[in-house]
Design a protein that fits this description.
Blueprint lengths: L15 H44 L5 E4 L4 E7 L3 E6 L6 E6 L3 E5 L5 H20 L1
Antiparallel strand pairs: 1-2, 1-5, 2-3, 3-4
Length: about 130
C-alpha cells in the first residue's frame, strides 16, 4: 500500500490490515481538517467584508460625499433602493450622474453633520500633535 503520510514506516505487528486501516483513518482525519479549515478561511473574511459594506451603506444619505469604484467623487442628491444620483463638477459645469449602489467605494459624511464635525476635530487634533512634535 502506498504510504502517503509516512507515519507507519517499518514493520507492523498486527499484520498489514491493521496498519493499512490506521493509515486510512489518519488520511481521512487530516483531509477533513484541511477541508474544514479552507472553508472557514474563505467564509469568515467574506462575512466581515459584507458587514463592513452594510455599515457603510447605512451611513449613505443625502449630502454625503461619495467616491465610486471608478474614482468619481460627488455629492448624493437622490437615493432609491438600487441607485444613487451624484452631483459632480465645478462651478457652472455640474452634472448629475446615476450609479448602482454596488459602485460605491467609500462614503464621507455630509458637510456640517455631526460625523463630519467629529472627523474634522480629530484631524485638527492630530495635526496639532504633529506640529508639537516638530
Amino acid at each position: 500500500m502506498l504510504n502517503l503520510l509516512g507515519f507507519f514506516e517499518g514493520e507492523t505487528t498486527g499484520g498489514e490490515a491493521a496498519g493499512g486501516l490506521a493509515n486510512n483513518w489518519i488520511i481521512w482525519v487530516v483531509g477533513g481538517v484541511l477541508i474544514v479549515g479552507m472553508i472557514l478561511m474563505m467564509v469568515i473574511p467574506q462575512r466581515k467584508q459584507k458587514k463592513r459594506n452594510e455599515e457603510m451603506m447605512s451611513k449613505l444619505g443625502l449630502g454625503s460625499i461619495v467616491t465610486t469604484i471608478g474614482g468619481i467623487v460627488g455629492e448624493v442628491v437622490e437615493l432609491d433602493d438600487k441607485h444613487i444620483w451624484l452631483l459632480t463638477g465645478v462651478g457652472d459645469n455640474k452634472t448629475t450622474m446615476q450609479f448602482v449602489r454596488q459602485a460605491i467605494h467609500s462614503i464621507a459624511p455630509a458637510p456640517g453633520s455631526p460625523e463630519a464635525i467629529a472627523e474634522e476635530k480629530a484631524e485638527k487634533e492630530k495635526s496639532e500633535e504633529i506640529d508639537e512634535i516638530k
